Amino acid sequence: MKIHHLTAAEALESLDSGPDGLSDAIIEERLHEYGFNRIEETRKQSILLAFAQEFLHFFALILWLAAGLAFFAETQQPGEGMQTLGYAILGVIAINGCFSFWQRYQAEQAIAALKKLLPQQVKVIRDGELSLVFADELVPGDLLVLQEGDNIPADCRLIEAFALRVNNATITGESLPKGRDASPSEVEDMTQSRNILLAGTSVVAGEGKAVVFATGMHTEFGKIAHTLKTTVKNQSPLQLQIRRLSRFVAALALLLGVVFFFVGQAIGLHFWQNFIFAIGLIVANVPEGLLPTVTLSLAMATQRMAKRNALIRNLPSVETLGSTTVICTDKTGTLTQNRMAVKQLFVENRVLQPEQLGGDSLEHHAALLAGAALCHNLKHVEGEALLGDPMEVALVAMAHRQGMRVDYPKIGEVPFDTDRKRMSTLHRTPQGQVLYCKGALETVLPRCTQTVRDGATVPLDESGRQSILAAQQAMADQGLRVLAFAYRPLPPTPEDDAERALIFTGLVGLEDPPRPEVADAIAQCHAAGIKVIMITGDHPHTAVAIARQIGLVRSANPRVVNGERLKKMTRSQLQVALNAPEIVFARIGADQKMHIVEALQRKKHIVAVTGDGVNDAPALKKADIGIAMGKAGTDVAKEAADMILLDDNFASIVAAIEEGRAVFDNIRKFLTYILTSNIPEVIPYLAFVLFRIPLPLTIIQILAVDLGTDMLPALGLGVEKPDAAAMTQPPRSQKEALIDWRLLARAYGFLGLIEAAAAMAAFFFVLERGGWHYGQGLHGQHTLYLQATTACLSAIIMMQIANVFICKQRQRGLLATPIFDNKLILSGIVLEILLILAIVYTPWGNAIFGTAPIDQEVWLFALPFVAGMLVLEEIRKWLVRRFQLFPFRHKPPRMRKRHAQRR
């Protein structure tokens, strides 16, 4: 038999223990056998290895290769700027790697945080004497002495209990303290047994003795720790997209390099000259500024989110939020305020709100309010502060708000236990001794013979009893915890059974109220196509009632799955159950919560999980994005999470999702911007080889664009504000790539070609004005050549200034797009202008970048190309809007599939 099925004496015997505890010899033996009562720590990755990994991911390897090729090219053909390019690429790798490492430096501390919840020292009985020992020295069979305020250091079975109540929220997620006793239990699940105390929980009232039966990693606490440390975090959607993008960039660059190497061979170029040309082409197609721009964009998004009370611990999680399709949310402390409050009362055959008590009718309700104010086990600390059961704190607070501040001395008590399901306290009052009773209606009502009507006592007939039972059922249906109250003036002579002939005073319904802003947040999630699923350790009735109040459940019969039912479900059954439009999970354990997350991920959902307790940590880590509560959350939950809500406000999740959705679109905006300039950087090389003209753009000038003038405007695009319609559209499909054919066609086949035409036209414009003719060679230091390459570079930068405004919106026209709302873009444009002026008109700029001053006619020559690109892009956007060329952009995946099948 399991230990919770045994009697207290049998439980002690099964562990070879007794009322006097264990002897020192046995303790030493068991400590050697079972080990210390500690949570094992996983071997952490060394800081050096973690640092090295930031420089060895796929895109970084591409940059390493590009740098290596640049240095090799410098050895074969010195003076072409390849060495400078190589050092610049190494600088990009170093800066990005160090920045990413700094952002990720907060190593996982989940196991260490778990240890912090365990008490340092505990009281035990050993060899018949009460001793104070370190918690990590406990062994199975030790006899613990517990009282109010103690943390439970190990899994143990109660031997004695006196009005004992425990808070299991950190393990089971249940919001209400639970009564515990030493009687044998018939339930199968040990964690639900009334005689079991779990490590990591705490005693909120009463006292008792318990025998330890599991320590360290063998406790339920330890099992959660084991689950947490063995849980593998999936790569975020953005990480997967960056990996795909890296492969695409590498493949494209290598393909172009190889193809044009063979083209050069075919047209008779010298091998080394052709090889250096191929290397230059490869390097020109690697957007060196992409990785730091993505990293800085994500970092700045985290700063914006922090201002909206969402602290991001893991950079890629910023974008993951935007693609979230399901939020699995805990109830207690997340959707609710994690405090008990009186919601409704039934007094004198009427349903009332708490604020309707007191006032002129205080005397009619005085007996009920006095019972709420006096019948408890709370302790006064720090003035009027009360310590103990939150339910009793709520009752006293309700009585005090209505003006009932009595302090009659307590001279006796009949404590609460599981059989009686009620408690009574005896007080000395000006009217004599009075007994106040509260508890479950089924145990209080049979002992009542009278009730209160208009401030007077009247007999309680069958009709009155039925009215009370109906009122109790109505409250229960609302998810309220219902307590019955009664009292009785006692005669001076003692009685054996004082809890009889009671006067019924009323029912009180308590709840853990929802956060006021949650309902609007749920509505916004629904509008954004995000499914919200409640997963809680509370009772199903309570869970559904709260779900209705916040708009999470609106139908008459939502699907409700409890822990027992979930245990019997196969993987397929669970995945089918999750198809329900409205589903609530109640009485769910820590491992089960993670099973739900895994099932949703198998259904290709991007899953966000909220939570605050130890029991939430494995699911938080397994989810695509874990969201912990900053105030009420345990250290374990915070360390396992990707995001922390600083204000514990569910509504902050919606704001963070809005920011996250903007991140993906913003990355595509600056990808379009960055990739566009690749074409006017590549085409000069092609023209140089194919048409035997002077090289229109040097490597160092390409570098001036990629890592100079383009960086700040690109970063400005990365921090664009979310679109007004962002939260009215469903989440993007996971199949929607950062780079698709539409983006490439726009960047390479449209905008890039226009920029290339402008750059080459400016190059030939200067050459023609200087008297150059086709076939004439120009030395690299010839003034005319320097001016021509300067014109090519200047035209590219001018076109990119227009392009940054073009890329702010993919479909909306320029006149309908706010132009001056992004200070970073405006600052970037100012910096671009200052940089190109410095490059063109200062001696050091000429020396570093191989340029020479150009006159105003060159700038004027490029202006029509700038205007032409703006006009042509406006025409393209108008055609897209007019003929709905891409109608499936924001439809859910299933809708797109059905449409395709019909076609």
Automatic annotation (TrEMBL):
It holds the Pfam family Cation_ATPase. It is a multi-pass membrane protein. Keywords: ATP-binding, Cell membrane, Membrane, Nucleotide-binding, Translocase, Transmembrane, Transmembrane helix. Coiled coil: none annotated. Residues 2-75 form the Cation-transporting P-type ATPase N-terminal domain. It is found in: Cell membrane. PANTHER family: CATION TRANSPORTING ATPASE (PTHR43294:SF21), SODIUM/POTASSIUM-TRANSPORTING ATPASE SUBUNIT ALPHA (PTHR43294). Belongs to the cation transport ATPase (P-type) (TC 3.A.3) family. Type IIA subfamily. This is Cation-transporting P-type ATPase. The lineage of its organism: Bacteria, Pseudomonadati, Pseudomonadota, Gammaproteobacteria, Methylococcales.
